[in-house]
TrEMBL record:
Species of provenance: Corynebacterium haemomassiliense
Keywords for the protein's UniProt record, in alphabetical order: Heme biosynthesis, Lyase, Magnesium, Metal-binding, Porphyrin biosynthesis
Protein name: Delta-aminolevulinic acid dehydratase
GO cellular component: cytosol
Domain of life where this protein originates: Bacteria
Length: 336
C-alpha cells in the first residue's frame, strides 16, 4: 500500500492555487455565454414592460421590449431564448385554447422573433398549458372513476401536439414540453414529423419536480393554479424515477433532456449527465433566482459572485445548457 512516508516529498494541494494564471490553467469547468438559455415572458394586453415583483430585473415583455432584450442577449453571446406566454385573464379557458391559436400571444411572439432574427437566434417555446388554462393546471381536467378531479393524460398530450405544431409553424427551432404527461415526447415527435417539421427539436423536461422553488414563476405568468402538481410532477424525495423518465424521453425521441430545478437537484443532474447520450440541460428556476437576488439586496451575500458560483456548480454537476434568468448579466461578466 502507498504511504506518504515512502516518498521524500509531501503532496501539497495548494501548489496549483498560488496565482490567478495557475488557477485559470488548471480550472476544470468554464462557463461560456453560449451555455445559457434565457427564459422570457411575453404578455398580452400590456403597453409597457412590467417588472415581476418577486423577480427583480425580470419583466413581462411587450413585443417591442421582447425584440430589444433578444438583441441584447445576442450581443452578449447568448444564443437561445425560451418563450413563455402570458395571456389576458379573459382569454384563459378550460383547455387553454389560446396556446394553440395562431394569433395567441405566444405564437405571435415566436413569429415576430423568427421574422426579426431568422436563424441567428435559437427560438425555444414552452409547450405547456398552465399559463393558458383558467384552472392553472398543465393539462385538461376530468373526473376519474372515484370522483377525483385529475389531469387527463392522453387528451392533454393531443393538445400539446397541436401546440407544438403551431409553435413550429410560427418559427420555433425547439419546442419544450414541460407538462410531465406520459408519452408526450413520442406523440409530439410524431406530430411534428407528420406536419413537416422533422427538423424542429424537442427539449424534454424529463426530471421535473413538484417544487416550491417555482413560486415566483407563478407570479410571473399570473398562474390561476390552486393546489399542486404532485400527480404529474415528480416527488422531490425520489431519484430513480428521474432515470426512468429520462430513459423514456430519450427512447421517445428527445433531442435534449432537462433537470429542473437545478441547484437543489445537482445529484439528479449528475446521475442523468452520466447516463444520457443526448445533451443535458438544467433549469435554474425562479425561486433560485429570487433567493439569491433577495439575499443580495439585503447585503447578505455578494449577488453577482454567488450567482456565477451557482451557475458554475450547475455546469460542474453535468449541465451542457443552463436555463437562467441571469443569462445576459452572466454572459456580460464572462465577456469581461
Ligand atoms: C410549466 C412551467 C413552470 C416552470 C416552467 N414551466 C411552472 C410549473 O411547473 O409550475 C417554472 C419555471 C421557474 O420556476 O422558473 N409551464
Amino acid at each position: 500500500m502507498w504511504r506518504m512516508a515512502d516518498y521524500d516529498l509531501i503532496r501539497r494541494p495548494r501548489r496549483l492555487r498560488q496565482t490567478p494564471a495557475l488557477r485559470e490553467f488548471v480550472t476544470e469547468t468554464r462557463l461560456h455565454p453560449a451555455d445559457f438559455i434565457l427564459p422570457l415572458f411575453i404578455a398580452d394586453g400590456i403597453d409597457a414592460p412590467r417588472e415581476i415583483p418577486s423577480m427583480p430585473g425580470v419583466y413581462q415583455h411587450t413585443p417591442e421590449s421582447l425584440v430589444e432584450i433578444c438583441r441584447e442577449a445576442l450581443d452578449a453571446g447568448v444564443k437561445c431564448v425560451d418563450l413563455f406566454g402570458v395571456p389576458r385573464e379573459e382569454d384563459k379557458d378550460a383547455t387553454g385554447s389560446v396556446a394553440v391559436a395562431e394569433d395567441g400571444v405566444l405564437n405571435r411572439a415566436i413569429a415576430l422573433l423568427r421574422k426579426e432574427f431568422g436563424d441567428e437566434l435559437i427560438i425555444m417555446a414552452d409547450t405547456c398549458l398552465d399559463e393558458f388554462t383558467d384552472h392553472g393546471h398543465c393539462g385538461v381536467l376530468t373526473t376519474d372513476a372515484h370522483g377525483r378531479e385529475v389531469v387527463d393524460n392522453d387528451p392533454t398530450v393531443e393538445i400539446y401536439c397541436d401546440m407544438a405544431v403551431a409553435q413550429a409553424r410560427a418559427g420555433a427551432h425547439i419546442v419544450s414540453p414541460s407538462g410531465m404527461m406520459d408519452g408526450q415526447i413520442e406523440q409530439i415527435r410524431r406530430a411534428l414529423d407528420r406536419a413537416g417539421f422533422a427538423d424542429v427539436a424537442i427539449m424534454a423536461y424529463s426530471a421535473k419536480y413538484a417544487s416550491k422553488f417555482f413560486g415566483p414563476f407563478r407570479d410571473a405568468v399570473g398562474s390561476s393554479l390552486k393546489g399542486d402538481r404532485r400527480t404529474y410532477q415528480q416527488d422531490p424525495a425520489n431519484v430513480r424515477e428521474s432515470l426512468l423518465e429520462t430513459e423514456l424521453d430519450i427512447a421517445e425521441g428527445a433531442d435534449f433532456v432537462m433537470v429542473k430545478p437545478a441547484l437543489p437537484y445537482l445529484d439528479v443532474l449528475a446521475k442523468i449527465a452520466e447516463m444520457s447520450p443526448v445533451p443535458v440541460a438544467a433549469y435554474q428556476v425562479s425561486g433560485e433566482y429570487a433567493m439569491l437576488n433577495a439575499a443580495g439586496q439585503n447585503g447578505w451575500i455578494d449577488y453577482e459572485e454567488t450567482m456565477m458560483e451557482a451557475l458554475m456548480s450547475i455546469k460542474r454537476a453535468g449541465a451542457d445548457q443552463i436555463f437562467t434568468y441571469y443569462a445576459i448579466e452572466a454572459a456580460k461578466r464572462l465577456n469581461g
